[in-house]
Amino acid sequence: MLRIDPTSAEPPFAQLRGQIIAQVSEGVLAPGDRLPTVRRLAGDLGIAPNTVARAYRELEADGVLEGRGRAGTFVRATVTAGRAAPAAVSARAAAERYAELSRTLGLEPAAALALVRQALEA
């Protein structure tokens, strides 16, 4: 079951994204499972459709979900033709976003890695 915590500092799209990744990783959502439509899930969770659409788009970009047009949004196969598991794909995408942000901020690679190590140890 997906839930949004309105008191969380984490934005709703990120909460939704994280919960879907966790459910895929834990096998609650299996490859080929169809997710609710954007409007239906937004209504069920009491959030804006654009919030759900953003989470779905990011998960599609990360290789966790697959949009099939009018047929809907589905969980991708965990391993397909050399693709990594959804958690690894999402982690790599997050790492790439962090690397880009670090470059934009002018951080040296060693400083950016030190921050990641600190975060992982926390």
TrEMBL record:
- Keyword hit for Manganese: no
Matching entries from SMART domains are given as: HTH_GNTR
Q: Which UniProt keywords apply?
A: DNA-binding, Transcription, Transcription regulation
HTH gntR-type domain boundaries: 10-78
Pfam families, alphabetically? GntR
Entry's SUPFAM superfamilies? Winged helix' DNA-binding domain (SSF46785)
User: What organism is listed for this UniProt entry?
Assistant: Ornithinimicrobium avium
Q: Which GO terms describe its molecular function?
A: DNA binding; DNA-binding transcription factor activity
User: Is-annotated flag, keyword Transcription?
Assistant: yes
Q: What is the lineage of its organism?
A: Bacteria, Bacillati, Actinomycetota, Actinomycetes, Micrococcales
Residue ranges crossing the lipid bilayer per the database entry = none
In Swiss-Prot or TrEMBL terms, this protein is called GntR family transcriptional regulator
Matching entries from Gene3D superfamilies are given as:
Winged helix-like DNA-binding domain superfamily/Winged helix DNA-binding domain
